[in-house]
Amino acid sequence: MMGGVGDAVAKSSHVAQKAVRFPQQGRGPREEAQPPAATPGPRAYHPFRDWCRRWGFHTEVALSVLAGLTAVLFADSHADVALIALGFWTGLSFHRGNRVTVPFLQQLRHAAQSVLLPLAGLATAVVFLSVPESMVMPATTAVVAAAATSVVVRVARTQLQSPLRVMLVGDRVAIAHAVARWMKSDRVHPVAALLVEPDLDEKPREIMGLPVVTDLGQAPLVVLRFRVDLVVVSPAPGLTSIDLRRLAWRLEATRAGLGVLGILDSVAPHRISPGLVEGATVNDVRAPRPSAGAALAKAAADRVAAALLLLLVAPLLLAMCLAVRLDSPGRALFTQTRVGRHGRHFKVYKMRTMVQDAEAVKLQLADQNEYDGILFKMKADPRITRVGALLRKTSLDELPQLLNVLRGEMSLVGPRPSLPTEVQAMDGDTLRRLAVKPGITGLWQVSGRSDLSWDEASALDTYYADNWSLTGDLSILVRTVGAVVGARGAY
After folding, report:
1. 397 neighbors 351 (Cβ within 8 angstroms)
2. What are the tens digits of pLDDT across the range 300-322?
3. Are strands 206-207 and 333-339 parallel, antiparallel or unpaired?
4. Which class for 127: exposed (0-12), middle (13-18), buried (19 or more C-beta within 10 A)?
5. 439-450 per-position pLDDT tens digit
6. By C-alpha distance, which of 405, 457, 419 is closest to 338?
7. CA-CA distance, 90 to 94, in Å (whole number)?
8. How far apart are CA 262 and CA 233, in angstroms?
9. DSSP-H helix ranges across 395-469
10. What is the largest CA-CA distance in the chain?
């Protein structure tokens, strides 16, 4: 969902107002009170994908338990212990139900934890309670078989299920921002809006193409008519905590989940902990600075991985250097001053992909810039050489930056390293990206690269600087493989 963060940040209330369509004069209150007709949206309806969305979780539970029971049936002994371990695992793994807002990486982490806990309990019983070791193998086989099946089915249904159908609740600006954020996503599909505004004189028929209702009491009807999976509420002047409670009551009989989007939107889930202060629910927000242990682990992992990768790709680097030199005159490696963490300048290493006098030619092409921000980008840049075009498309030109990672100037994952002139043009919020080391890959690179607007790229980098984690870095590294193979935005 992060690919559209910049769109939401860039939208203004003026855009939101223009996106609202009002009914013609003379529409009576009776007609306006009716829930909107279920008109087909811009995305096609696929029965199988919709079935995966509705029943995929139940199928996962059934197949996982069946796999565990099958392992129990083939156990030579202690089937009763294996059944107890399987039941314990089932409760741990699925006790939260089908929560559609849990990130996939967190789901996998939870699956791993659900395996470790029952097995750790059994191991403790063997060590301290003199339980026979022969009980361990049947229980382990049953739990591992069920967990492996769960992971396989979860990965499959994540890829096959239809986009999450969302009803937005809030004022016009909040609804318009949410639509702008998710309109490009293939995982989320806004289908309806429930407008909550005080002193609403004129009731709009739609906001950015979404049919609108203005009565909280109609929420269950809209959920049923549009097969809504998740109701997302944005705090609005006319929406109180009592309204939110009543909305939850009305949605209780439906399949839809209820989520709140608002002031904590830019804070990653791992930084938020629900709390209670004298009867008031207060979400505790952890400071964006990472712990000393996490920062040390990231630095160590960066340097070790960079050293190993450099040894692995050394022959490839030599071949690329030779190809660059044969293709055009000039040095094979390109160095340029970039800005790192806390504004420190350093020399970045890349394979040269442009002609030797690229900076001089850039001044002549200034009026042909195709980017909407302070960066200079052209899809058909005449400065790029033939070998350079191939290196850019495959992202192999970035490999020499492993030297910067080894020297501690960059990280494997982080914001794109910026030029000093770019940093001078950034506002205070965008400069937040300098709180972390720049990276070879990052949210910008795996979310579209040069196809993203400046606002989108800046919002992604700022989000990363505030919310990075070791598991998040691992997820970005995995997604980088797909981004490189797809070559989206690589020019």
Report:
1. yes
2. 999 999 999 999 999 999 999 99
3. unpaired
4. exposed
5. 999 988 888 766
6. 419
7. 6
8. 8
9. 401-406, 420-424, 443-446, 454-467
10. 82
